[in-house]
Structure formats: C-alpha cells, structure tokens
Amino acid sequence: MTDSGFTAPQPRLVSPTMDSGEFESFRQFLQDACGIHLAENKQYLVTTRIRKILQDNKLESLSALVDQLRRSRHSKLREQVVDAMTTNETFWFRDVHPYDYLQSTLLAEIQQKPESGPIRIWSAACSSGQEPYSISMTVEESRRLNRLSSARPVEIVATDLSASMLQQAQAAEYDKMSVLRGLSSERREMFFDQLSDEVWRVKPFVRSRVQFRSLNLLDSYGGLGRFDVIFCRNVLIYFTGELKQNILQRLHASLKPNGVLVLGSSEGLGGASDLFEMVHCKPGIMYRAR
C-alpha cells in the first residue's frame, strides 16, 4: 500500500481456466520453439510452471507472454519459458543396462573397427550432465578392466537446448541427494571430489572427455560430426509423430556405419524402423543403423 492509501494493481495471473485461445497460442509457440507437443489437457501444468515467469516479468496474461516471446527469438524470457516447460529429471546410470552393454560389448566392438580416429559418443538432451558423465565413468571403468585400450581416445559430445542446464552440467557440481541417487560408494570415491558436506564435484579426468554444446533437436546436427553411439533417451516422447520421425532420420544420418542408437525404455522407432535393426542387450534394446 502507498502513503496515499492506494493499492497498486497487481498483474493478473493466468488461471487454470485460461482462455482456450491463449492456451492454443502457447502450445503452438512451444512446438515451434523446441518441438514439445502439449496435450490439450495440460492447461493446469502450464499455469503452475509459468505463473512465476508472468509475475517476475509483470505480464498480465499468457497471451501477453506469447506476444513478448514472438517479438524476440533469442531472449532470456524465451529461455526461461522453455526451461520451465521441459522436464529435466535425470540421474546417474539411469536404467543401468545401456552402460553395462556399452562397457561389456560396444566399446570393445567399436575399438576393433579399422579406424584411427576417436570413438565418438553423443549424449543428446543431456540435461544437468548425469548422462554424459555416467558415459565417461563407464569408459574409465572399461579402461581399468582392460576392455578398452588407450590407443583410441573417447570423445563425448553432450548437448541440450537449455542454457541453465548446460551451465549446471559444465560446473559438474551436485548436491548430496543427487550424488546418492544411482551411485555406489565405490563410484563416488573414484569419480568425485567432496567439496563440502552437501556438494560433490566430478573429477577432472571424467570431465575432460565431455564437450558441452547448445543444440535444439529441431536444428541441424551437421556441425557435430558423426558418432559411433548416440544416446537420445526420454526425449522423443515429447514430440509429435512427424517430428519424432524427422529427428530419428537425422540421428540415423549422424551415426557412422553400423552405429548404435540408445533410446529411452518407453520409446520406439515408429515410422523410422526401416533405418535400424534391434540389438537385444538383455534386458534392454538398442538400435543399430542399417
């Protein structure tokens, strides 16, 4: 309240019963920006995730937000909205079997190919870094078990569209709760430095294999080069069937001959099944480029 007793009007926050036109406009923006397809029943999800952004930017409605977003393609506001609407849950050695198979079979198999360059692995949609660092730890364990020689270095390229997630990943610092999730005490000791009671940092020799880059999966992958293995997990479920097929076709083009694609446990190839053959790694499945 001011000295005169007048209360300044507060920005109107979008309610769960937002206008259907507002919601549709926001859905279209999100799909255009990063390919995410929101179902028609996700109005409440939008409300809860966008409310603070509206308030912080003194915007009165979802329509005002979309208008602002469309005016500036590379704004900080755009980044905040995409961050808020993308799910960044991840943890160490998720699902286990991709890493087990990478260590027991794939790395040795790739090493035997008549190539002299580095073994290249892409972690697409890497979020806060647990996946690419888990891959790097797997590489290190393979070397220590003499399953992988040092003759061919391993390069891991990790990409995400979220600048804040990439910043966290590059810092390689994690709180106690996240470090305890999916990591044995042996791996914590081998691969982390404990900075305090609550903060752990990935050791330099693990970080050194990983290069982080900003990339929207809707954009070109041409600048990344080609890979022996691509991890693209728990991402395709957010895209329409048409976009998913397009992404899978371009992932296929980014693989070296007989390269391997790793998807999430609930994801499949859909209309791109003719490009790959299944690899059963018990209990999971991977896909080898034809």
Would you kindly provide a written description of the structure presented here, covering whatever features stand out?
- The termini are far apart.
- The protein is globular.
- The relative contact order is 0.12.
- The protein has two domains: 20-85, Chemotaxis Receptor Methyltransferase Cher, domain 1 (Orthogonal Bundle); 97-289, Rossmann fold (3-Layer(aba) Sandwich), CATH 3.40.50.150.
- It is built from eleven helices and ten strands.
- The model is unreliable at 1-17 (pLDDT under 50).
- With 290 residues, the chain is of the alpha/beta class.
- The chain has helices spanning 20-34, 43-56, 62-71, 76-85, 97-111, 130-144, 163-171, 176-180, 185-191, 204-207, 241-254; strands at residues 119-123, 154-160, 173-175, 192-194, 199-202, 210-214, 227-232, 255-263, 276-280, 285-289.
- Helix 1 packs parallel to helix 3.
- The strands form two sheets. A seven-stranded mixed β-sheet has the order 6-2-1-7-8-10-9. Strands 3-5-4 form a three-stranded antiparallel β-sheet.
Number of DSSP E strands? 10
Low-confidence blocks of residues = 1-17
Determine the CATH topology of the largest domain: Rossmann fold
What string, H for helix and E for strand, traces the elements in order?
HHHHHEHEHEHHEEHEEHEEE
- Corresponding CATH superfamily of the largest domain: Vaccinia Virus protein VP39
Spatial ordering of strands, largest sheet: 6-2-1-7-8-10-9
Q: What is the CA-based Rg, rounded?
A: 22 Å
Tally of separate helices:
11
Q: Main beta sheet, described?
A: 7 strands, mixed
Strand content: 15-25%
**Classification by helices and strands:** alpha/beta
Q: How many domains make up the coordinates?
A: 2
Mean pLDDT across residues? 87
Note the gap between the termini. 68 Å
Give the overall shape.
globular
Query: Can you identify the CATH class of the largest domain?
Result: Alpha Beta
Helix content: 40-55%
Q: Just name the CATH architecture of the largest domain.
A: 3-Layer(aba) Sandwich
